[in-house]
């Protein structure tokens, strides 16, 4: 009995010891030496810049590889079963459709990622079931996924996304029959091998592809074998040949999440059935697939929680079918062409948390029923045509975090119920017609971090109290309203802004000293804010992170140099239109964009330009126009190789153009007009073969116009040599400049004929005419992401005007006020895209070519004060856009042709000839001749101008509306994706 008991006790004790040992083992299994060797070998082939695998070493204290970073062993067998070697994403874009292209960049920028190669010895880990190498962009280096992975049949989880592999998926992957989870996103192109269909245990399949659509799903039959599949992500794949994709996928009875965004789907879309099985689907993402309607079968997916159909060009009203999808929490219909009002049926979707209808053509006012959506967390109605006032029901959105109704036509005062939106962090009301003082309704929203109220009709005084609760405010954009900031001299705001735009507020006359507290500012626009003061010395040091500063259009005075202790180092600086004087400031090499135009800087620019620099300056845009800069332009351009736009017009420069300007190999726009530059045409410019716009007008240049222009400057679109003393012939080489659209040689002493080869100036043909409004230079500032448009003063319509927003459309030939002789070449009338033609004040003779009627776009023609004879060709009445015409003081004779336009010009436009008929009072039957200069027909004249003005107005209006919205949008996304990386747009004055 005892023995039995003893044996039993012994057994119990053994059991305890065993259990104890077992328990200890469970916590710290001792790793198997051969597997440790495998890991070390594997590590040996990796590059690990941040030493993440420092624990992987042979030191005896560290010999248990089960405790190494990222390694998991089985508690019982001690075999290595999991390797977690992924590099996590800073912002996890991987399941975010919009950011999926950015994902690559984000991943690529991560510094702790592993590189090197995946050694085949990894396959020796026979018990490994979990392998995550994602995010280690350096592993693949564009090679295809190694085939040996197909031997690791114990794997249930394999993640090679963002590993830099790229190429065909090896068919051996199909051997991994235990796989439950497979992610090869951004790691493959070519056709997906049908062997993937052997992975019958797969539940998760992620195969995101890049934007080049080089991952092909040629047929989907293999998918039908994946009967356990729940998550299928194929964004960016090309399914154009997978004609039965829809029928195959609907038969996957376990499928809950389907993402086909950015896919190329087979055409035609309309053969889609009206009902499909898809019984289990919870999430369907089909954005960017160019399906121009909402497929009917979607309305049968009654379990759907998330639906994304954005950016498909869908037209017509928002269908009522959405109301069937009562469980929807996320509905993205952005970037389509929906053109109804928002149907009330949408407001019956009470579960909605994320509703995005932005970037459509929705109209009408927002109904009270909107208030039913009490679960909303994000509502985006921006960029539509919504009107009316905001309903008081907006106060029901107590959970709303993001509310964007910018770029609509909503008016009225802000409902006081805004106060209830206590969760609100992002509010954008910009570009609407709101009135009143919004801070009444907004001032209690203490969680707000982004407030956009720009471009409304808001007004009133903004006091310290109104801003006191905004302790989380980060971005505050309030420009273009009628606000006056009324704060005490010692006000210390409780927010720390990174971006502040108060353009056109009344902030002055004192320089706002509270800026001193905003240490994190990156973007600061205080242009046109009535500041009448110095820039204090502390300012430049108070905002060390600034990359954009704009104080233009104020009355800032004083010597800028004396307030600057260090060279300016802000990327974009705009101090134009102030009263700054003295010396130009020193720049650090980081400055990218500098506008100091329209000030009173009056000391030579020698120090500015010739300061000792060890590194190349980054400056791309330099505008010093309309100052009083004296002396010679210094010959120190060699360090400023990045300059693209240089504007020195309207100063007091004398002497020759310095040779080193020729080193500006990126230069696209050079404007030195209206100085006193002398000498011959600067031959150094032949090296600036990227030039698009060259303006040397209104100087004292002399000699001939060299043929090198037409040989080297073949990209020129604008060539302006007006008002110099150039003599000799117009070189024929000019005709090689096939992009030339503005040619102005007026007010020189040019002689000889007008070259007949002008008919080679291709850009002045209607069929070749640019339809781009702007002529962009290649200046893209890192902090605005925007190209800078070239602006030029052109003498058209008898006056000088600065062209920028429609410069791309202007075509102009002005050879007036020279000594040109010979006839008007018939070939010039081939330029049927020409808008302005001025040949006046020359010695031209012969007749007006009858083909002048071909120049159908002409708005203005001046051939006055020549010796042109003959009759006015009747074809001139074809010129239906003509609003200016001057043929006076020639030897023209006969009857002025009749036509709708012609008789509307003034008699003086025909004076000094032998012409008769209206608008001249001379009757053609009689022979009386007298000059008349009264205003017959002036009324018509005005009407013409009105239409022309309206046309241009439309064009300009389009750009002031559309361009900013594109940018604001990117702002917003940038803000939420990269708080520390700012994209900003330049002001376009
Ligand atoms: C090993 O044991 C730990 C707890 O000690 C447990 O969390 C873990 O899931 C176990 N791992 C395996 C592979 O069984
Ligand atoms: C896939 O990528 C590889 C490597 O970049 C390239 O050589 C190959 O042409 C691509 N294949 C396809 C089908 O685009």
From TrEMBL:
Q: Where is the Disease resistance R13L4/SHOC-2-like LRR domain?
A: 122-310
Q: Which SMART domains match?
A: LRR_SD22, LRR_TYP
Annotated membrane topology is: Single-pass type I membrane protein
Transmembrane ranges, per UniProt, are 945-968
Instruction: List localization entries.
Output: Cell membrane
> Which keywords does this chain's UniProt record carry?
Cell membrane, Glycoprotein, Leucine-rich repeat, Membrane, Receptor, Repeat, Signal, Transmembrane, Transmembrane helix
Per its UniProt record, what SUPFAM superfamilies does this chain match?
L domain-like, RNI-like
Q: Which GO terms describe its cellular component?
A: plasma membrane
Identify the stretch annotated as signal peptide in this record: 1-23
Please state every residue range assigned to the domain named Leucine-rich repeat-containing N-terminal plant-type: 33-74
Q: Which family does it belong to?
A: Belongs to the RLP family.
Give the PANTHER family listed for this entry. Answer: LEUCINE-RICH RECEPTOR-LIKE KINASE FAMILY PROTEIN, LRR RECEPTOR-LIKE KINASE
Q: What is this protein called?
A: Leucine-rich repeat-containing N-terminal plant-type domain-containing protein
| Organism of this sequence | Flemingia macrophylla
């Amino acid at each position: 009995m005892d023995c039995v008991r003893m044996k039993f006790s012994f057994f119990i004790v053994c059991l305890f010891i065993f259990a104890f040992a077992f328990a200890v083992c469970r916590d710290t299994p001792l790793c198997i030496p051969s597997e440790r060797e495998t890991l070390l070998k594997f590590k040996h082939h990796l590059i690990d810049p941040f030493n993440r695998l420092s624990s992987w070493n042979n030191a005896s204290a560290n010999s248990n590889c089960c405790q190494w970073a990222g390694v998991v062993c089985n508690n019982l067998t001690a075999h290595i079963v999991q390797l977690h070697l992924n590099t996590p994403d800073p912002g996890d874009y991987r399941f975010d459709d919009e950011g999926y292209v950015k994902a690559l960049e984000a991943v690529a920028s991560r510094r702790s990622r592993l590189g090197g190669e995946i050694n085949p010895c990894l396959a020796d880990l026979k018990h490994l079931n979990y392998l995550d190498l994602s995010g280690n962009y350096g592993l693949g280096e564009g090679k295809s996924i190694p085939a040996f992975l197909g031997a690791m049949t114990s794997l249930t989880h394999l993640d090679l996304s963002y590993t830099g592999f790229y190429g065909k998926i090896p068919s051996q992957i199909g051997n991994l029959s235990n796989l439950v989870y497979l992610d090869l996103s951004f790691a493959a192109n070519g056709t997906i091998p049908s062997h993937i269909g052997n992975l019958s245990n797969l539940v998760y399949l992620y195969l995101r592809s890049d934007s080049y659509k080089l991952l092909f799903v040629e047929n989907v039959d293999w998918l039908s074998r994946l009967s356990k599949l729940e998550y299928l992500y194929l964004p960016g794949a090309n399914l154009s040949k997978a004609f039965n994709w829809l029928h195959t996928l609907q038969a996957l009875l376990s499928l809950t999440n389907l993402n086909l965004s950015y896919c190329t789907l087979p055409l035609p879309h309309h053969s889609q059935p009206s009902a499909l099985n898809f019984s289990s689907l919870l999430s369907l993402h089909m954005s960017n697939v160019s399906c121009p309607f909402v497929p009917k079968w979607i309305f049968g997916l009654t379990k759907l929680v998330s639906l994304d159909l954005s950016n498909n060009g869908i037209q017509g009203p928002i269908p009522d079918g959405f109301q069937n999808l009562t469980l929807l929490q996320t509905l993205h219909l952005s970037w389509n062409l929906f053109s109804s009002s928002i149907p009330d049926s949408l407001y019956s979707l009470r579960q909605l948390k994320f509703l995005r209808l932005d970037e459509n053509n929705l109209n009408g006012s927002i109904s009270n029923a909107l208030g039913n959506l009490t679960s909303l967390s994000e509502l985006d109605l921006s960029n539509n045509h919504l009107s009316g006032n905001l309903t008081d029901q907006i106060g029901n959105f107590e959970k709303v975090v993001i509310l964007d109704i910018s770029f609509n036509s909503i008016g009225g005062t802000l409902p006081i119920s805004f106060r209830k939106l206590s969760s609100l962090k992002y509010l954008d009301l910009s570009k609407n017609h709101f009135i009143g003082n919004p801070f009444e309704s907004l001032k209690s929203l203490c969680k707000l971090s982004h407030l956009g109220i720009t471009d409304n009709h808001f007004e009133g005084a903004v006091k310290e109290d109104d801003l006191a609760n905004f302790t989380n405010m980060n971005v505050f954009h309030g420009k273009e309203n009628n606000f006056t900031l009324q704060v005490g001299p010692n006000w210390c705001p409780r927010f720390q802004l990174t971006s502040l735009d108060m353009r056109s507020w009344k902030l002055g006359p004192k320089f706002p000293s509270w800026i001193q507290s905003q240490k994190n500012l990156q973007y600061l626009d205080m242009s046109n804010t009535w500041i009448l003061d110095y820039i204090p010395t502390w300012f430049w040091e108070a905002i060390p992170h600034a990359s954009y500063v704009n104080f233009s259009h104020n009355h800032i005075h004083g010597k800028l140099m004396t307030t600057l202790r260090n060279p300016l180092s802000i990327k974009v600086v705009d101090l134009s239109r102030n009263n700054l004087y003295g010396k130009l400031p020193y720049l650090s090499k980081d400055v990218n964009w500098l506008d100091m135009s329209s000030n009173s800087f009056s000391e030579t620019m020698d120090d500015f330009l010739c300061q000792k620099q060890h590194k190349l300056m980054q400056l791309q845009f330099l505008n010093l126009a309309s100052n009083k800069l004296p002396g010679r332009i210094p010959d120190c351009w060699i360090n400023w190789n990045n300059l693209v736009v240089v504007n020195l017009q309207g100063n007091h420069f004398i002497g020759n153009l310095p040779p080193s300007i020729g080193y500006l190999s990126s230069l696209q726009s050079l404007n030195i007009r209206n100085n006193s530059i002398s000498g011959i045409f600067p031959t150094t410019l032949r090296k600036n073969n990227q030039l698009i716009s060259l303006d040397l007008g209104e100087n004292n240049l002399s000699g001939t116009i060299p043929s090198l222009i037409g040989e080297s400057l073949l990209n020129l679109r604008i060539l302006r040599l007006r008002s110099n003393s150039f003599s000799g012939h117009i070189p024929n080489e000019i005709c090689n400049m096939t992009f030339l659209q503005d040619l102005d040689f007026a007010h020189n002493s040019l002689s000889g004929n007008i070259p007949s080869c002008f008919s080679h100036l291709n850009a002045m043909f209607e069929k070749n005419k640019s339809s781009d409004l702007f002529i962009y230079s290649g200046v893209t500032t890192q902090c605005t992401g925007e190209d800078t448009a070239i602006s030029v003063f052109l003498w058209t319509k008898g006056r000088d005007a600065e062209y920028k927003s429609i410069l791309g459309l202007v075509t102009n030939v002005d050879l007036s006020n020279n000594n040109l002789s010979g006839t008007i070449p018939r070939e010039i009338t081939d330029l049927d895209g020409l808008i302005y033609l001025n040949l006046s004040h020359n010695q031209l003779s012969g007749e007006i070519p009858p083909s002048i009627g071909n120049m159908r776009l002409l708005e203005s023609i001046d051939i006055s004060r020549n010796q042109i004879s003959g009759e006015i060709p009747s074809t001139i009445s074809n010129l239906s856009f003509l609003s200016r015409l001057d043929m006076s003081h020639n030897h023209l004779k006969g009857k002025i042709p009749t036509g709708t336009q012609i008789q509307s010009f003034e008699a003086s436009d025909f004076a000094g000839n032998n012409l008769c008929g209206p608008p001249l009072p001379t009757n053609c039957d009689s022979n009386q001749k007298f000059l008349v200069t009264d205003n017959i027909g002036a009324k018509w004249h005005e009407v013409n101008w009105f239409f022309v003005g309206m046309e241009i107005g439309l064009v300009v209006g389009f750009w002031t509306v559309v361009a900013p919205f594109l940018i604001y949008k990117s702002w917003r996304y940038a803000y939420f994706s990269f708080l520390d990386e700012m994209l900003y747009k330049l002001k376009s004055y």
